[in-house]
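Exercise 4. Each item below gives a protein and its sequence. For each, produce the structure-token representation.

Item: Oxysterol-binding protein (Daedalea quercina L-15889).
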Amino acid sequence: MTDTPKGDVVGEAVPAAQKSSWASFLKSIASVSGDLSSLTAPPFILSGISLTEFPAYWCERPELFSDIADAKDEESRSIAVLKWFISTLKSQYTSRNEKLGSEKKPLNPVLGELFYGSWPDINGRGQTNLLVEQVSHHPPITAFYIENPSKGIYLRGHNAQKTSFSGGSIIVKQIGHAVLTVDLPGGGKEEFLITLPRLRIDGLWYGSPYIELTETSYIQSSTGWLSTIEYKGKGYFSGKSHSFKAGLSPPGTLAARHTFEGTWHQTSRDAATGALFTDVTGPKEEVAVRALDAQSEWESRRLWRGVATGIREGDFDTASREKSKIENEQRQRRKDEAAAGTKWELKHFDHIDSDPVYERLGKLFKANPPTEDAYVYRHNYVLEP
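Answer:
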């Protein structure tokens, strides 16, 4: 099943033997009035991929990330950042749908979980490196740092989710933001504050969940250029699911100088000229990671190896057993820390209560909330080429 709209289709995502478990899961969702993040999903609806891996989706088209550094001026740089950002959305929000037949719930990471990866230097684009750490378990918060040092591009951010149930859909408010920093040829830096879209997970009653992005997100440059991105489902801008419309405004005005529209999982165009803007229908580049045996016990793919194998092979009993083992070990670790009066120490990030970049750039478009915390990378790890 593709990532086309599924509102009218009865999906095949739920195995016949698991339909009663799915029905029970839906009842548990509907009965919760607050945050859903603590609910335990049945194994057959899990993706086998931890949320700790998700920041890799920001750079599965590394040439677009690299292209930002080659822009000649502030306006073209903001266009390049917008193009790169829109091109990250398909991997983040529909890749499991395409690959697995429906949206799957990622594994809830453990505190301290790590993920390292890279994309190689090809044709002078520079090597892009990724470092991710799960910095909180309740609530689940993922901090990440992405860099292309030879191009002078750096991205840091964090992401958490607050979920609720409304009107037959799961509503996901993404908490957090990202800051992209670009070293300029003449010295100095340009910064971009990137806010995160909200999600709505539909298709639950058909056993074939899929994601729609909703509301508005922003990309604010320190030069004053602002991208305002509106997300709509089927029947709005283009009559298609996964639609968006983005306006890029120069400093001092909200009037868009450029408008781009289309679908974020396929193609989009410049509204004025019709020129192609984004096209994510072609292949993407998976992140390269070390072999499992070379990874530490805290690295995501080694940590969840047994669970992922069980899910991939349809052996849900094994997947459930391996998942429970990890979760029980984590509960015991927290009990031991409480008994000893100690606290888990983060490995790569420091938490700050208020991000000065968010506060400074957020004022330019009246960000809500006006302040937000952040996780600052310590620069204490070197990824091997």
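Check: The longest helix spans residues 316-340.
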